[in-house]
Structure formats: C-alpha cells, structure tokens
Amino acid sequence: MRDRKQYFIDFLLTTVVAVWGFNFAVMKLVYTWFHPIAFNAIRFVIASGVMVLVLRFLGISLRIDRKDFRGIVSLAFVSNALYPFLFVLGLNRTRAGNAALLMALTPIFAYLIGVFKRRESFNVGVLVGIVISLGGVLALVLFGSGEVSWGDTWIGDLLMISSAFCWAWYSAEQTRFLPRYGAIRLTVFTMLMGTAIIIPLSIPWLINQDWSGIASMAWVGLGYSALLSIVYSYFVWAYALSRIGVAHTSVFNNVTPIIALFAGWLLLGEQPSGAQLVGVILVLTGVFMVRSRKPTAVPDE
Q1: How do residues 211-250 score in pLDDT, each as one tens digit?
Q2: Residue 108 neighbours by CB under 8 Å, 6+ apart
Q3: How many structural domains are present in the chain?
C-alpha cells in the first residue's frame, strides 16, 4: 500500500505537468516579441540566478567530485543546452498539437533507456501503461482543434522528437548521480553548466533582439517560463526521479496535453470532443497502471 509520501510526489508532479501544459501556449505567445533563442538564453540566466539563491539559502555546497565531473557536464550539455535549443526551435517550427504529441514519446524513451542502462527493471505492466497513456495523448491531439500537421512541419517535428529523446536521456541518466548529490545540488550544477554553454552560442540573437519593443505581457511570460517551468519544475522532477524512478516519473509527461485541453476550454472557450474525453481516460488509466506498480527508487548511498 502506498504511503502519504507517494501521494505527495504524485501531487507535486501533477503541479509540474500543469505548469508545462500552460507553458506551450505561453511560449507560443511570447515568440511574438522574442526570438526563440534569445528568449531561451534569458530565461536560463534568470533560472540559474534563482537556483543559486535557493542553493545558498539552504546552505548546500555546489562541490562535485572530480571523478563525476565529466559525466555531470555531459548531463548538463544534453539537458540544459541541447534539449532547450531543440525544444524552442522545434516548437517555433511546428504546431502545438504536434509538439504535445511528440513530447509524449518521452516516457517510452526514458523507460527503455533506463532498462538498457540497468537503472530500471523491465516490467510489462509498466510498458503497457505507458503505451496506453500514449494512445490517450494521440486521441487528445488528433481529435482536437486541428492543431496537427505532418507535411510542412517535418523539420520542427524532428526537432521535437530529438528534444523528447534528450529529456528522456536526462531523466534516466540523472538517477546515476542523484543518490550522491541530491536533487537540488545536481539540478543547480547542471543548470549553471548548461547556461554557460548556451549564452555564448546565443550572442548573435541576443544582439539582434529588439528589446525596446517587448510588451509587458511577454516579460510576464518569460518569468513564468523561467521560474515555474524551469526552476520549480526541474527541482520537483529531480526529486521525483530520486524517489520513484524513471518510468513512474516520466509517465506524468503524458498528463500535459490534458492540462492543455483544460486551458483551451478555460481560456479560449474550446469545447472538448467525446474522443478527447476518451483520451483523457486513457491517459489517466495508463498513469495509474504505471504508478500502481512498485516504484524503482534510487537507493541512498
């Protein structure tokens, strides 16, 4: 029987996917004023600064053992340099529905990577649950408001698939270091390393960005994306990975389109179809199947 801590982790992950569900629309809106790369660079600088303040407030050291340095820098490059570049450029070149559907591949990628690297035990029930939730995402997106197209968006779609794989690899590989460094220290260190890589690469777009013409709403969206979608969500994600494992955490990615569906109804008056409601049931059923299995927690050292 699951204890209260397991339900609390589920609650935290639900808040994360809620943030991410709204973040698709927020970023699309903000792109009206920001170039995606300039936007990405600024939000990572803000997120890094806030994370460092959190680290100092809690009195946690940022020190990393020399033997782990190369592996953690590689983790930082994939998660906080390569992934966000692929994500923001992919989202800019495809439709919101495509992006939501393709990012739903993340739990499958993460689970298979975890099994391959022997950080997750193979379980047929878990895999079936992930596939069922993916089917629910398919129904949510394909029977939505026509925000799916596979012809003229193939470049953006490939970028989104690549970003999904990067986030899956990060989720699986992160469990290697979490027992030693904890969620906060590891998240902050990888964020700082990733930001150090992103900024020099983003300089041309930062220079050419029209800073005077940015609306106040865009700055609010930037703050939302930096503070909630990155700082809060990354901390919670790492904590969940350290407690319940890769598959049980990653499957929550597929709840994100449900939040997007709710946001469309709440903010835009879009009425969900019957097929989409079936999709909601499938997603939640798949998540329940995965979370009802015994978690593969990372053991403490």
Answers
A1: 988 999 999 999 999 999 999 999 999 899 888 877 778 7
A2: 130, 131, 134, 168
A3: 1
